[in-house]
Specification:
Helix content: over 70%
CATH topology: Ferritin
Shape: elongated
CATH architecture: Up-down Bundle
Structural class: mainly alpha
Number of helices: 6
Number of strands: 0
Distance between the termini: 54 Å
Strand content: under 5%
CATH class: Mainly Alpha
Order of helices and strands: HHHHHH
C-alpha cells in the first residue's frame, strides 16, 4: 500500500516531480549551509540587521528542506540525505568565508534565482501531473522568495 495510490496521481509524472524535488532539496541544503556561514561571518555597519535577517532566512530554509523531503516521501520517493549527494546535484555551490554585506546579499540573490527557477520547473511538472499539493507548495515558496528578492535588491540600492 502506497500513499501515492490514494492520491490518484500518475506514477510517471510523479517520478518527474520527485526528481525535481530531489534537485531542489540538494540546492536548499547548500543554500542553508551558506546562509549559516554568512550569518556567522557577516561584518560591517549593517551587521545587526543582516545578521538577524540571515538567521530568519536559514530558519525558513530549514523548514523548506523538511517540507520538500516530506513531499518526496508522500510521492513515493526517498529523500537524499548525504551531503556528498547534495554536492554532486546542487547548482548552488559552497562558499568560503564571506563577511562583506554586499557580497553576502549578492550571493543570496544568486541562490534565490536558482531556487526560484527550480521551483518554477517543479511547479510546471507537478501541474501537468495534476499534483496540486506540490503546485501549492512551490507557489508558496516562490511568492515568499520573490518578496525576499525585492527586499534584498532594495537593500543593495
Amino acid at each position: 500500500m502506497k500513499t501515492v495510490d490514494f492520491l490518484q496521481l500518475d506514477s510517471k509524472s510523479t517520478k518527474c516531480t520527485v526528481d525535481g524535488l530531489q534537485t531542489l532539496l540538494a540546492n536548499l541544503q547548500l543554500y542553508y549551509t551558506n546562509l549559516r556561514g554568512f550569518h556567522w561571518n557577516v561584518k560591517g555597519v549593517e551587521f545587526f540587521g543582516l545578521h538577524a535577517k540571515l538567521e530568519e532566512f536559514y530558519d525558513d530554509t530549514a523548514e523548506k528542506v523538511d517540507e520538500v523531503a516530506e513531499r518526496i516521501l508522500m510521492l513515493g520517493g526517498v529523500p537524499a540525505h548525504n551531503y556528498s549527494d547534495y554536492l554532486k546535484t546542487s547548482t548552488i555551490k559552497e562558499t568560503g568565508v564571506v563577511s562583506n554585506t554586499k557580497e553576502i546579499v549578492n550571493n543570496v540573490l544568486e541562490s534565490l534565482k536558482v531556487l526560484i527557477g527550480l521551483e518554477r520547473g517543479i511547479l510546471e511538472t507537478a501541474s501537468e501531473g495534476k499534483d496540486e499539493g506540490t503546485v501549492a507548495l512551490m507557489s508558496d515558496f516562490i511568492a515568499e522568495q520573490e518578496k525576499n528578492v525585492w527586499m534584498l535588491t532594495a537593500f543593495l540600492s
